[in-house]
Amino acid sequence: MPARALLAGLFMFPLLCCAQTSDSYSCDDVSEHRQFDFWLGEWQVTDEAGTKVYGNNSITRGADGCLMMENYSSVEGFTGSSLNYYDPSSEQWHQQWVDNGSSIIRLSGGKDGSAMRLAGTIYYLATGKAAPLRGSWTPLEDGRVRQFFEQENEDGEWVVWFDGYYQKKP
């Protein structure tokens, strides 16, 4: 009998040790997790004048509000996705971006006034080179969101990498 009880205990241990605790954390109830909500929605991405269309972007929430997911597609067939989340342990927002063959981006930062500002590194898959990258998402008075990115070049100068204006789709 003791061997059978020990065997049963060994089979049950993984279930008991790894079960979710009754402690809960609601991202919806923590204001920092809501700081990037202005970016949620279905968007058409254009130049500032709205005359040149770059593509479409869908920003949704997941994991009970603890995660924002981005799915971008350009008019030329370029696609990319990112996961965005607030980490209470670092008190920062993080973005992990991967696209269909050109780059991987890792950014961290936070809210600065009305804008979200993140900085980190872009890694180019084809060349194996990396460079500092920084970006901002700024809600505009007309309901659009401006996404502005700069990359540091070999001379240490920051140059525009992307400048897009998000207009909500009807």
* Series of H and E elements: HEEEEEEEEEE
Q: Helix- and strand-based class?
A: mainly beta
**Estimated share of beta-strand residues:** over 45%
Q: What is the CA-based Rg, rounded?
A: 21 Å
Rough outline = globular
Give a quick account of the main beta sheet: strands, pairing sense, barrel closure.
10 strands, antiparallel, barrel
Mean of all residue-level pLDDT scores: 90
What kind of oligomer do you see? single chain
Helix count, DSSP H or I runs of 4 or more residues: 1
- What proportion of the residues is helical, as a percent range? under 10%
Low-confidence stretches: none
Distance between the termini: 68 Å
Count of strand segments: 10
If strands are numbered along the chain, what order do they take across the biggest sheet?
1-2-3-4-5-6-7-8-9-10
